[in-house]
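tl;dr need the bound structure. longer version: we got a ligand (hexadecan-1-ol) that a collaborator sent over and nobodys looked at where it sits. i said id run it. heres the input, straight from their email, havent touched it
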Amino acid sequence: MSAAPAATPAAGPAVQPPRFDAPAYRDAYSRINGLVIVGEGMADRHFRRLAELLPDQRDELLRLGAMEARHARDFVGCGRQLRVRPDSPLARRLLDPLHRQFREADQQGDLVSCLVIQCLIIECFAVAAYRLYLPVADAYARPITEAVIADEAEHLNFGEQWLRPRFQAVAAQVEACAARSLPAALAMLTALDADLRTIGIDPQELVAEFVVEFQASLQAIGYGEPAARQLVTRLTARALSRGATLS
Ligand code: PL3
Ligand code: FE2
Ligand code: FE2
């Protein structure tokens, strides 16, 4: 066998960090930052409502809500650092369907759906998004995002721990709720597709990461691996075929 050519360094295009001061970056960041800030504020309100609904775990839920309020403040700081004004009106419009689903579930006394919407769907979405943001974040936002990811894992865990011992009784509600809320979550990504790309996040990768997270959550509450995979794949495919398309 002839001698192999001298090893060359791993090929492939070098990943360029985004230019954080470019007008296109700052413009995209204003909408992403708005969504994150308003989303964290909404999570705070949801946990405070859950604290009223679950008086036995009131203190823990208030603690989780306070963490969300701090996330919102920390991400406000990230926007300020880049001299970006968050687009809050757009964020409120994009988050409204999920918030409305939470409120309707609450009005109907459907605690299971409230927990699925906040602790599974929204938190899985946040974990997936922040994980993909981490490698392309600026030096100020990176440690903040890292700390937030660890907190979000606790929020996910709360929902999983509550649902798991009740799995048989709640499985049908979990599925019905996920079938409504997953399209609402993915529609936000569709709306911000171009902005996500501009800040260095591939929206398709984000969906893939969400699928991994959500499947793991379903398994944590009692679904077997094949059932969890089938459910997530079916719901995601259906949501994306109904207009939540990603380019
Ligand atoms: C749960 O604690 C809060 C949920 C907030 C919603 C997050 C939506 C994230 C969308 C994509 C953002 C990319 C990350 C950018 C971070 C500044
Ligand atoms: Fe958060
Ligand atoms: Fe959270």
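gonna send this back to them w/ a short note. The longest helix spans residues 23-53.
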